[in-house]
TrEMBL record:
MF annotations from Gene Ontology: epoxide hydrolase activity
Transmembrane parts of this sequence: 21-45
The organism of origin for this protein: Cyanoderma ruficeps (rufous-capped babbler)
Annotated keywords: Hydrolase, Membrane, Transmembrane, Transmembrane helix
SUPFAM superfamilies referenced in this protein's UniProt entry, alphabetically: alpha/beta-Hydrolases
Family indicated by similarity: Belongs to the AB hydrolase superfamily. Epoxide hydrolase family.
Domain called AB hydrolase-1: residue spans: 98-212
Protein name: Epoxide hydrolase 4
């Protein structure tokens, strides 16, 4: 898989994947149907009690103070020439230091990396991005604009727009999927890869279609202010359209023709993740053709970097330092 355009498999394999995807989504919609029935009953109860309040969409007008905390960094914007999209990111650390690029998951935005922005700015230019369709980044209206090829190209273009040709790339959840694919497509741009609670894409494709038990996500330890930050961002009109479109194109250009990851890789996993089963983390190691470290935290959930930030940061520092030492030797 030298470049994103080469990622798409032959027609026969795509038909097979499409059939399996259809079965998967049938299970998803069945599960959602049960949830919808429960939600419908609650809605009827709410309508009966407070009809005026039930259908009012409350948009939070003012962001909570934590979103403008100067200790997290500076809010910046960059417009990509090819796509014309404007991306929002928060940057901490001096310009010219090695770049650490952070890719959030669903349904999140740059703020999910708040603990890492503070931690790593001493030695890195840390950039936490709002992915296409999220937060203050532009959200194209059509689902075709969210295919994996487009998301991979975004990261390449942003890296170049920031004035870098390589970075330490870190991704969580859906951002982890994108991080794996960038590392496969553009290995020269990724010095070290760190992924939080997302397996290699080939493992994901094969495993998740066979295990519908992963439809329920686990919880996360957030403060009241953190929750308000998420509510503020996702209460804005159309704020969920882009994130949902990411998942509507989840099987585009999968399975992969090329699988290997050739840079040092750290995979961190919260064992209490009810969405991503830990077996996928173990299988992932066969695709990394370099130093690979897997650390499973028994008390952590899917939202690992927010759940256990001190432990996660320490593990990342250890990985980064040991790789520097390994190169010197």
């Amino acid at each position: 898989m030298a470049r994103p355009g080469a990622a798409c498999p032959p027609p026969a394999r795509r038909v097979m994947v499409a059939a399996r995807a259809l079965l998967f989504w049938a299970l998803v919609y069945s599960y959602c149907g049960v949830c919808a029935c429960i939600a419908g009953l609650r809605l009827l109860w709410s309508i009966g009690r407070r009809p005026g309040e039930t259908f009012r969409w409350v948009v939070r007008e003012n962001p909570p103070a934590c979103l403008n905390d100067p200790s997290l960094g500076t809010h910046c914007y960059v417009r990509i020439k090819d796509s014309g999209l404007r991306f929002h990111y928060v940057a901490a650390g001096e310009r010219g230091k090695p770049l650490m690029l952070l890719l959030h998951g669903f349904p999140e935005f740059w703020y999910s990396w708040r603990h890492q922005l503070r931690e790593f700015k001493s030695e890195y230019r840390v950039v936490a991005l709002d992915l296409r369709g999220y937060g203050e980044t532009d959200a194209p209206p059509h689902k075709e604009n969210y295919k994996l090829d487009c998301l991979i190209a975004d990261i390449k273009d942003i890296l170049e727009s920031l004035g870098y040709n390589k970075c330490v790339l870190i991704g969580h959840d859906w951002g982890g999927m994108i991080a794996w694919l960038v590392a496969i497509c553009y290995p020269e741009m990724v010095t070290k890869l760190i992924v939080v609670n997302f397996p290699h894409p080939s493992v994901f494709t094969e495993y998740i279609l066979r295990h519908p038990s992963q439809l329920i996500k686990s919880g996360c330890r957030l403060t009241a202010e953190d929750i308000e930050a998420y509510l503020y961002v996702f209460s804005q009109p159309g704020a969920l359209t882009g994130p949902i479109n990411h998942y509507r194109t989840i099987f585009s250009c999968l399975p992969l023709q090329h699988h290997e990851v050739i840079m040092p890789t750290l995979l961190l996993w919260g064992e209490r993740d009810a969405f991503m089963e830990v077996e996928m983390a173990e299988i992932t190691r066969i695709y990394v053709k370099n130093h690979f470290r897997l650390t499973i935290l028994s008390e952590a959930s899917h939202w690992l970097q927010q759940d256990q930030p001190d432990i996660v940061n320490k593990l990342i520092w250890t990985f980064l330092k040991e790789e520097t030492k390994r190169k010197r030797e």
